[in-house]
């Protein structure tokens, strides 16, 4: 009897536990529809998941704006670097160095951007010569051939959709288009456009145009030779840049050696920043080392630039 009572008690206990578990599951399942129904009826505020997604999207947009600003104004990275060094070294000298380096880095970045823009201009002039030659070979008149070539350049660069009219010839492209469309002085417009960086080949195009108009010479033949000369000059510059890549790499490695030495000293526990920024001998070494670093960089850059000019 005792065994039977114990079995019945355990069976009732199992049934009770199953009933409680089922009730809990049912309440959990019915809770979400009720909550959703209440949120639909009394939707004064957005749901929590939407707020989370909205906050995440705002953070992503802010990060994208920050990265875009950092790409456009890379010289301002000198400021946080100077602040970090000032905090680590407990000195204002890194802040002064960062303030001095800011305009120098900005000037260097602008010069690099100008060099890249000039290279793109040279490529654009060669492509324009080839396009005009193709249109002339197809039987078009010189003005119409130039007009079609410029329009094709706009379509390829995608500036027709954005409203940018300076895809190939820069700011003077509107004058060249007007001269080609309405029978104006095309050589004068081309010479004006040749004043832009990297557009020097347009002066040769203007000379070919003037000779073809005044003397009746073949414009297509002259433009073909001009295009070949521009492409050959670009090929030589690329070869020279490839040959000087090793020299530039050596200059960069030598320039970063003092920074590597400071990092190695900090890793060994020597506190090089404290020694350089807070002791008379360290300040003297910092001044002499900075002067020698600048002089070495200038001399190495002059050697490499001399090779490029030659």
From TrEMBL:
Transmembrane stretches, start-end? 12-29, 76-101, 244-269, 281-300
Q: Which residues form the Type II secretion system protein GspF domain?
A: 166-263
**Protein name (database record):** Type II secretion system F family protein
UniProt keyword terms in alphabetical order = Cell membrane, Membrane, Transmembrane, Transmembrane helix
Which compartment or compartments is the protein found in?
Answer: Cell membrane
- What is the superkingdom listed in this entry's lineage? Bacteria
The UniProt record lists the keyword Cell wall biogenesis/degradation: no
Q: What species is this protein from?
A: Streptomyces pakalii
State the signal peptide span: none
Which InterPro entries does the annotation name?
T2SS_GspF_dom
Membrane topology per the record? Multi-pass membrane protein
Q: Name one Pfam family in it.
A: T2SSF
């Amino acid at each position: 009897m005792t065994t039977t009572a114990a079995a019945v008690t355990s069976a009732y206990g199992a049934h009770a536990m199953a009933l409680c578990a089922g009730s809990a599951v049912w309440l959990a399942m019915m809770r979400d529809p009720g909550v959703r129904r209440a949120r639909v009826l009394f939707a004064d505020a957005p749901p929590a998941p939407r707020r989370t997604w909205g906050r995440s999207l705002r953070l992503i947009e802010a990060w994208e704006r920050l990265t875009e600003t950092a790409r456009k104004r890379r010289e301002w990275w000198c400021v946080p670097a100077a602040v970090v060094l000032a905090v680590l070294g407990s000195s204002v000298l890194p802040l002064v160095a960062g303030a001095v380096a800011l305009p120098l880095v900005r000037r260097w970045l602008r010069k690099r951007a100008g060099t890249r823009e000039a290279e793109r201009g040279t490529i654009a002039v060669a492509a324009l010569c080839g396009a005009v030659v193709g249109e002339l070979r197809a039987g078009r008149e010189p003005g119409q051939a130039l007009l079609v070539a410029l329009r094709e350049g706009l379509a390829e660069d995608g500036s027709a959709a954005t409203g940018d009219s300076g895809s190939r010839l820069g700011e003077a492209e509107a004058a060249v288009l007007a001269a080609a469309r309405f029978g104006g002085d095309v050589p004068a417009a081309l010479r004006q456009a040749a004043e832009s960086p990297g557009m020097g080949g347009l002066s040769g195009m203007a000379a070919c145009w003037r000779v073809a108009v005044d003397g009746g010479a073949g414009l297509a033949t002259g433009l073909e030779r001009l295009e070949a000369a521009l492409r050959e000059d670009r090929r030589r510059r690329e070869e020279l840049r490839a040959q000087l890549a090793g020299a530039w790499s050596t200059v960069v490695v030598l320039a970063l050696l003092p920074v590597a030495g400071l990092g190695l000293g900090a890793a060994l526990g020597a506190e090089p920043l404290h020694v350089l920024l807070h002791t008379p001998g360290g300040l003297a070494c910092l001044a002499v080392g900075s002067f020698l670093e600048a002089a070495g960089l200038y001399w190495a850059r002059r050697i490499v630039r001399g090779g490029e000019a030659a």
